């Protein structure tokens, strides 16, 4: 890596870190690119040479966080035990535990997912392929173990689970941005059990 | 979520004879609301300032503040008016569906059709609902109860008519149904799905959600 690339990389890191803190502490809408630049101690111009928009910054902040989370999952997944529904509950509980550490960031991420951005660097909530793949594996495994109907439309079931998972963050939104991971996981568990009851082979 | 806020139970009978001043005030309100609706649609909630709205309505910011306490009150008023406009249709669709599924698709179909016509405003409403204050959230939460009551009514009828089992957790299934209904708007926003496509998807999702509840 040349000196210039290294500098560029360092700027990027600083911007993402500053943005993560400001989005969570001050709020996404309230945070300007100028404020991010100031906190990161870089020029406004250099933020814009790295990212097309604030939406893109948020997207990259989230992606960066997810990289960490999924590294953790790679470690944990082989050790998941229990019935299919229990495994799903564990996966979502870990997500809640992780996201509630900076829950306002995640609320902004969900909010942004309803406002399309034309910037190619933006990846909205709901397009997280790793979560989808993980859930798909658990359901496929469930079919093998005879706990899930073979003719279940798994993508559709995953769609429903992800919608429910996201909506449970309303609890954090209504508490003024204070996320209670245990309460959210408990709600998700009831929802998963209700849905899982329907995909049991008969 | 505040885009379904309602005051449907407040009776608006007994027409009041408006004085000239009251009429002028009413016209000002309407001008502000119509300018605000346009700007919120074009720029989103955060992007439209009271100053912009006043300018678009051809009046001073002071005149806007004489009618509305702040921007969020103005925005809520627009969403409430929209909900009131479709509420009666949703109730009718819910009651005329032959089965619980049909009734649910009917009532959500009304909402999809209405909101797809003005998607930018819906997007602004959803974005605000995820980030707005605690007080606004409490208000919208109590507003949501109307929709849930309607869904519960439909499902209870499904139980009474023997389509759904009597021992199911109606409230839980209503919640899940609502969650997927809202999430589906992303398909309209990103992928340009039509009302028909959304309803076809919802219909499939209902099969998953209600699989264990079928009698």
Task: Characterise this structure.
- The complex is a heterodimer of chains A (202) and B (215).
- The mean pLDDT of chain A is 90.
- Chain A folds into two domains: 1-51, Orthogonal Bundle (Arc Repressor Mutant, subunit A); 65-199, Orthogonal Bundle (Tetracycline Repressor, domain 2), CATH 1.10.357.10.
- In chain A, 42% of the residues are buried.
- In chain A, α4 packs across α6 (103-112).
- The longest helix of chain A is centred in the N-terminal third of the chain and has 23 residues, at 3-25.
- Chain A has helices at 3-25, 33-40, 44-50, 54-76, 84-99, 103-112, 129-144, 154-167, 170-174, 181-199.
- Chain A is an all-alpha fold and 202 residues long.
- Chain B has 215 residues and is mostly helical.
- Chain B folds into two domains: 15-68, Arc Repressor Mutant, subunit A (Orthogonal Bundle); 70-214, Tetracycline Repressor, domain 2 (Orthogonal Bundle).
- Chain B has ten helices and no strands.
- Chain B has helices spanning 20-47, 50-57, 61-67, 71-96, 100-117, 119-131, 134-160, 170-183, 185-191, 195-209.
- In chain B, α1 (20-47) packs across α6 (119-131), α4 runs antiparallel to α5 (100-117) and α8 (170-183) packs antiparallel against α10 (195-209).
- The longest helix of chain B is centred in the N-terminal third of the chain and has 28 residues, at 20-47.
- Chain B starts with 19 loop residues before the first helix and ends in a 6-residue tail after the last helix.
- At the A-B interface, α6, α8 and α10 of A face α6, α7, α8, α9 and α10 of B.
């Amino acid at each position: 890596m040349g000196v210039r690339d290294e500098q560029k990389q360092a700027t990027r890191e600083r911007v993402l870190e500053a943005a993560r803190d400001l989005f969570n502490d001050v709020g996404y809408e309230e945070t300007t690119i100028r404020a991010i630049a100031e906190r990161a101690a870089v020029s406004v111009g250099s933020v814009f040479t790295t990212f097309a928009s604030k939406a893109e910054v948020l997207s990259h902040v989230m992606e960066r966080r997810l990289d960490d989370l999924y590294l953790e999952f790679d470690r944990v997944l082989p050790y998941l035990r229990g019935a299919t529904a229990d495994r799903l509950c564990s996966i979502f509980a870990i997500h809640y535990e992780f996201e509630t550490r900076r829950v306002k960031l995640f609320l902004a991420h969900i909010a942004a997912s309803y406002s399309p951005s034309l910037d190619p660097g933006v990846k909205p909530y709901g397009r997280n392929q790793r979560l989808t793949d993980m859930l798909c594996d658990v359901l496929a495994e469930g079919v093998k173990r005879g706990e899930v109907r073979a003719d279940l439309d798994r993508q559709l079931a995953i769609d429903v689970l992800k919608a429910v998972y996201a909506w449970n963050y309303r609890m954090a939104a209504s508490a003024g941005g204070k996320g209670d991971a245990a309460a959210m996981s408990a709600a998700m568990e009831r929802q998963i059990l209700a849905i899982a009851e329907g995909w049991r082979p008969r | 979520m505040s885009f379904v806020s309602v005051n449907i139970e407040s009776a608006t009978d007994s027409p009041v004879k408006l004085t000239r001043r009251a009429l002028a005030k009413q016209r000002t309100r309407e001008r502000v609301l119509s300018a605000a609706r346009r700007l919120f649609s074009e720029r989103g909630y955060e992007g439209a300032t009271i100053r912009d709205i006043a300018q678009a309505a051809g009046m001073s910011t002071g005149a806007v503040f004489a009618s509305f306490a702040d921007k969020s009150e103005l925005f809520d008023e627009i969403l409430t008016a929209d909900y009131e406009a479709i509420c009666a249709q949703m109730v009718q669709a819910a009651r005329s569906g032959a089965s619980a599924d049909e009734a649910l698709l009917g009532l959500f179909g009304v909402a999809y059709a209405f909101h797809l016509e003005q998607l930018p405003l819906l997007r602004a409403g959803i974005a605000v609902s995820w980030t707005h204050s605690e007080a606004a959230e409490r208000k919208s939460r109590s507003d949501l109860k109307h929709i849930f009551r309607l869904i519960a009514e439909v499902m209870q009828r499904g139980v009474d008519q023997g389509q759904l089992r009597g021992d199911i957790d109606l409230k839980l299934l209503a919640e899940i149904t609502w969650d997927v209904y809202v999430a589906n708007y992303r398909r309209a926003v990103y992928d340009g799905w039509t009302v028909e496509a959304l309803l076809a998807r919802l219909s499939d999702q209902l099969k998953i959600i209600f699989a264990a509840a079928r009698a």
